[in-house]
Amino acid sequence: MPKRQAKVGESNCTPNSGTIATSQTMSATTIKYAVLLILTIQNASVPLIMRFARTSEADPYCVPLLVIIQEIMKLFASILLLTSEVGIMNVAGTIHTEVLGKPMSTLRLAIPAGLFFLQNNCMQLANSYLPAAVFQVTYQVSHRVSESTNGQHIMGGV
C-alpha cells in the first residue's frame, strides 16, 4: 500500500512520536535548571572559599599561579568534553583543525581570554583586601552588569 503524502498542516508522525519530543523537552528543561542551580552554587561559594583560603593562617598562595592552575583545569575539562563529543581518536585532529587551522579565530579568542586572566587576578587580589560581604556583593553586581551590557543571559528565558 503506497504512503499518502501529508497535506500542509498535517504530520506523518505516529501518535507516540509526540511523547519522545515532550520527554526531550522536559529533559532539556531539567538540564537547564540543574545547570542554573550548579552555577548559582558555584558563583556563591567560590568567592567565599577563595576568601577562606586566602585569609587562613597557612602560607598565602601566589595569586597568578592559582589563576593559571584554574585555567589549566578548565583546559583539561574542555578536552574531556571534546573527547566525549568527537571520540578519543579525533581529539588531536579537531584541536588542530579548530585552533591551529584557524589562526585569526584563535587570535580573536585570545584577547578576551587575556582580559579574563587579568580580571581573575584582580578578583583574587580584591578578595584578599575587601571584607567578605563587600566583595561578594560587588562580585555579583559586576556579573549582573556585564550580563545586561552584553545583552546575553545564561539561561535564555529562565
Task: Describe this protein's structure.
With 158 residues, the chain is an all-alpha fold. 75% of the residues lie in helices and 0% in strands.
Strand content: under 5%
Structural class: mainly alpha
Helix content: over 70%
C-alpha termini separation: 47 Å
Query: Helix and strand succession?
Result: HHHHH
Large-scale geometry: globular
**Total DSSP helices:** 5
Radius of gyration: 23 Å
Largest sheet, in brief, is: none
Report the mean per-residue pLDDT as an integer.
75
Extract low-pLDDT stretches. Answer: 15-21
In summary, what is this structure?
With 158 residues, the chain is mainly alpha-helical.
Main features:
158 residues; mainly alpha; globular
Topology (SSEs and partners):
Elements: H1 17-55, H2 63-86, H3 91-100, H4 103-129, H5 132-150
Helix pairs in contact: 1-5, 2-4
